[in-house]
Structures are given as structure tokens and as C-alpha cells.
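Chain X:
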Amino acid sequence: MASRHCLLQRRKKRKSMKRFVLQMKMRFKSGAKHPSALHGTLHISSSDKASPQIPEIARRLTATSLCLNGGPRCLTIAIAPECRSPDANQSDFSIDFVPDSALFLVRSTGNQTISPRDFRWNDWEQNRFFACTRCVLQASRPLVGRCSRHSSPDASQKLKVTMIPGDGVGPELIYSVQDIIKNTGMPIEFEEVFLSEVHYTRSATIQDAIDSITRNNHVALKGVIQEAFHGPQSSELHGMNMQLRRRLDLFANVVHIKSFEGIKTRHGKPLDFVIVREQTEGEYSSLEHELVPGVIECLKISTRAKIERIAKFAFDFATKHNRKKVTAVHKANIMKLGDGLFLRVCTDMAKLYPKIEFEQMIIDNTCMQLVSRPEQFDVMVMPNLYGNIIDNLAAGLIGGAGVVSGQSIGSDYVIFEPGSRHSFQEAIGRQIANPTAMILSAANMLNHLHLDDYGRALRSAVETVIKDGKVKTRDLGGYASTSEFTDAVIDKFRM
């Protein structure tokens, strides 16, 4: 009777435990500080000695979406009750990280620390570190694990994001996004900061914008700030765009070129490739001066550290998003030192990623290949000036600047903006601009903030409107206004 009573109590206790949660706090350290360098796949497998009854599902529990922006993060992994040994109050787990040469500091729920020296190199498999610790399984409410700066909010908890309308049609496009957020109930609240080099008397300062972004989850949605040729800002070689990138260290500009059903392209083939551009040095370093009257010297700066960082970002991006090939674009045949260094670093970095195909291509040949056979590209990585040109060329392949979104990524900050940076001054107030690029940038922002359902629904609504072809802006061959296209997206929005 006593044994039967214990058995019933044990079953009752196990039934009341809905889920067991393994919580770990992680802080990543890496010489190359960028988000994709700090991602990996986490496998948790049970120790055979400690809990032999844990089934195979617990042996290979995988947590993905480990794309971080640096600093402390919290990962929560939910384990079903049937995955836990009924006889053990705690179990030994082997934590297996597969990053790319990053150092870790991992803390379990018991505040036990694993220092980088506890990791050992495995010679038989490249780029793999191992660490073992003792973690405690705790009964808790059901949780879905994500690795983020904050926990996923519910509808009652709004996330604040900095909004920088910019110049030209930027305010109109940003306000289209605001209308969508308001009418769909997304938990987003904007703090507006007006930056402009054209209307400099009304513009806030760069420090105001940085303070706002820092307060608001280190995220901003931004229009295009037009560079001025006159006024107070013109006396400074560094424009507001460059100052933001430099001070926030937004080193990687990522533009996703993907064709839409409903927009006819000249090639007739679906395109899907990514352009990764280093944007904190190179020709746009604003290092120029007049040696003697009529003679201007403009310097191009290339440093090994920043080239390694952008090359590693491109390969990590390809790894995370299941891309097969990385193409390094350069002009090393002429600029043998500057672009020669870029090519050598990319070639050396490719050796660390044997599963990803690598090729190098001269910039002029790249332009020809983009026009003739753009489907051959997958991930392209290049210096600043080349990236600016290729971004706009590639946008023309899939419908123009109005349909391409982009993002500027740093180790701690992300700014979402149109991929082709045109202010479109001549369209101000005429309601003819295509808001697709800005809306898709907002969808990327929602995904970054872990509002994935909203992000997917918003992207799906835009794709549906374009595919139907009933509401087209002028750049796509129609007569719909900006507000009419926005209203159509709201009508198609489904969670």
C-alpha cells in the first residue's frame, strides 16, 4: 500500500508539472563584434549516466534563431515533462555550441559559470567548441525560447522604436507604416526624431537621435536623409548618414534583392540574392582635401580588421540563412593594395567555411553579369562604393527603388530603411511614391523585435497586393496613390 501510495503521489506530481524549463544566461565575446558572428545552433543531449530514461527527443533538442546583437541575452528552452527522468531531480547535460570561433560565458540556472578556458577544441570537426555543465530542470509555465534583448511582448506591452522620417517622401512613407501599425493593432510605439540636412533649422542633432535609439531597444525605422551641398552641414565632410553609421558602428548594410510575383522582370526568372556592403570606411570615409587650388585628393581607407569583420558577417549570414555561395566583389587588378587586401582577407575567410562556395569577381564584370545572368548570385560582399552602385543596379532588376528594403547592422544597433536611398524630392506631396520598401523594412523590424507573426502577416499582405495587381503605384505601371496602396495592404493583413 505504501509503495502504491508513493507511486500515485509521484504520478500526481508529474501530471501537475506542465513543462520543465532549462534557463541559461549567455554573454558572448568575439573579436569580430557583429550579430551573425554570435549565432550558432544549440544541442542539448542527456548524459547516459545521469538520466538514461530521457528519450531521444531530449537528446537533440535544438534551439535556432540565435542571431544576437551583442551584450547579455537570455535563452529559455522548454522541455516537455515526458523528456525528463522521473527518478532524477536534476540531470547532467552536454551543451554543444557550433559558432564560428567565438568565446562564451555561459551561466546556468544555478549561476554556475563556464569560462572560455572550459571550452576545448575538437580537431576532427572544424569550428566546433564543447562545454559541459550541470543544469537544473525546473517546473515552470510553458515558455517558448527565443534569444533576444527582451522577451516577446504581448499586445498590451508596446515596444518603443525610434522613427526618423528623413527628407523627400520619407515622411509620407513612414506615416504609411504608422497607419498600418495603428489599424492592425501592432504593439509598436514610435518616438519621432527629425533629422535633415536640407531643413537644418528644424533638424535635431545626431546626439538626439542616438539617445533616442539607445532608449528605444537600439532600433530605428528611418527614411532617407538627403545629403546637403550647402548650409551648416556642408562645412562638415561627414554628413548625417555617415555620422550615424560611424557613431553607432553600423558597419554592415544588407539589401535583399528578391523578385515579386506580379512584377514583370526582363529576365523572367525569379531572383533571390543578398548584397552585403561595408559602410564605415572605403571611398565614403569623407577624407578629402585640396592640396593646391584645383587639385583635390580623396583618400580610400581599407583596414584588415574591418574587412575581416564584414567578410565574416557575409559568411555567417550565408550559413545562417542556408545560402550556398559568397561572391567577393573587388577591383584588385587595379587597386592592388587596397582591394588586394580585401580580396586576400575574403579568400582566407572562405577557408574557414568549407561548405560554402566562394568566388571572386571584378566590379566591372559583376555589373555585366548582373545584367546578363543575375540568377547566379547568392550572397555578395563588397566595399562601400561598389555596394552603393550594385544596390541600385540590382534594385532595377526587380522593379526599382520603391520595392527594395534594407537594414544597417551594427554590434548593438540596427536601423531599418529602404535599400535604395533616394529621397525622391520631386514627388513630395503628390502621393505617388511606392511605400513597399518602407513597409517591408518595417516587417524586417518586427521580425528583429521578435514580433514574428506580425512581420510575416505584413510581408504576406504586401506580396498579396502586388500579386493581385489591382492596386499599383505609378512606378509599377498603375495609378494608385501612396495612401491607396497602404489601405490595400491593411485590407489584406491577416494574422
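Chain Y:
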Amino acid sequence: MANYGYLNARVRALRTRLLPPGFVDQVLAGGGFEAFTSALAQTAYAPDLESAQAYGAAGERASLSGVDRAIAANVARTARALLGYAEGDAETLLGLLLRRYDVANLKAVARAFHAGKAGAEREDAVEAVLGATLPIGELDAATVRTMAGASDLAGAAQALVVAGHPLAPAFRAAVAAYVKGGDFFALELALDQAHHASVFEEARSAGADEAFLAYLALEVDATNLQTAVKLRGRDLDVDACFVPGGDAVTRKQFAEIAAAAPGAALPSLRRPFADAPDDPAALEPWLRAAVERTARTLTADPLGIGLVTHYLRAKEREAASLRLLARGTFYGVPAETLRRELGHA
């Protein structure tokens, strides 16, 4: 039995705590990182910012790592609250929505090892990995820290197995293939494929309605479109890289996009991807925005998971914007340049 009425009432209350539209203008008008942290301290992030500063080194009043910790802690606290409100099928579907962040976090951990920026003797790198993640699903911050501090990527995979995460078998297999062949892109693809396959199966078992299943299909389409553009110029088995389950990007279109030269125009695609850019750097934020717009269409049902789905997307965008704003003000990026970049966050 799901308690969507109560859950959605709590989500409506949480939406009022999202940052106001004028927050960015306020920070940019202040002109620096101190103005940013001062403004952030006047928002719902205040207790998290205070805790992060207390956790940091002495004198670490205004640091990027402190802000990263505060943002991650706030989003994690919000996710825990949502899970506490949800019951029955609503809790199951919410857990599936949060698993997408686990996938992103596993990629961040693997990417750090791939770049030689993680390991048992790299405490600074462990903090950097934590700052690049949003541990709000089953993969919590403690497990991320353990993985990032492992002696190698295989050790990180074993830590995930010990934690009992549902993606542990897929991650361990992907890591083994990476260690053997060195193809990091294939590791990321394996995680995407395992994630989408398991989410569809579990969502159907939990009685998800057609609208939510269509949303999950759209997430698959977004993954396939982004993957196809990244595949350009690579000598990979295109068919093996396709993730089944989507509706808007067919296997044929996927192969056509992947086979084209880098920078080539995309073929005619169904909505909401008809206007998608072909530049990989611009495509990722564009896809996030397109999926969020679709999630917004699910919010009308007071007895469904749609309102939670859209709220999580909005919270993710807020966190990404805050991290970008923190770095921009810290490094003195011109206000107009930063404003333009925030438009794509």
C-alpha cells in the first residue's frame, strides 16, 4: 500500500525550500566567493554549511571542499527525509529513482581511479571524490569514502560487494573487464545497462503506472543519445552499446548517430529530443533539462510518484548549479560567463 497523498504533501513543502529565482543574481552582484557562502548561509543549506565548516580543518571558513560537503549533506538529508515519508510501493519507486545517483557516484569513483586520483594514500583525493558525488541512494557517503580509499579499483568494487549494493555484481564485472582491457567508456556503459535493466524490472514488480514507465523509458533514451554522440570516432561494437527499453531513440537511429563524424548534425528525432544539440558538451545539460521538463508533466497526479520525480530532478539541478557557482566565484570567473554556464547547468 502506497501513501502518495502524504508523501506528495511533504514534497510540496520541500519545494518551498528550493532556492529562490533571485539567488544567482544576489550572489553575482556580491562579486565573490565570500558573498556566495554568505548568501548560502541564509538558505536551507545553512545547517549543512555550518557542519561542513566545523568538520574541516582549522581556519577553513570558506573552502570549496566545505561547500561541496554541505551541498552533498543537504541533498542526502532531503533524500533520507523523503524515504522516511514514503511507504509501500511509493518507497520502492523512490528507491529506484535514487539509484540513478548511485550509478553516477560509482562512475565518479571509477573515474578517480582511472585518472590516478584515488587510493589509500590519497586522502585529499577521497575528499575530492566525495565532493563530486551526491550519495543520496543506497550508496551512502561512508561507502563512497571506503571505495575511494581502496588500494585499487578492484578493491573499491569489493567494498561495494561487502556493502551489499544491488549494482555490486555489475560493477565488479565491469571493473574486471576494465582492468583487463583498459576501456573506461565500456565500464560506464556496463553500469548504465545494468542500471536500466534492473530499474525497469523492479518498477514493473512494484506496480508502476504507464506514465512512470514512460518516464523511465525517456531516461533510457537520454542515455542512448548521449552514448551515441560519445561513440563517434571510436572503434566499438555499436550494437552492444545500445541500452534497450527506450521509445524515442531507436536502435537504428543510435547506430546512425554513432557512425557519423564528430560534430555531424543529428538525424530527425522524436520529441522531446527534436532540438537536441550535437555538441557533446552542450548535449548533457540539454538532456537533463529535457528530462526534467518531462518529469514536470507527471506532477498533476496527486496519487502518483510524479511529484517526487520532478522534485528530485529540480534538487539535482540546484545542487549542480550551486557547485558551479561556488567554483566560479572562488576562481573569479566573470559574472556574465558564469551566468551563461549556469544556464546550461
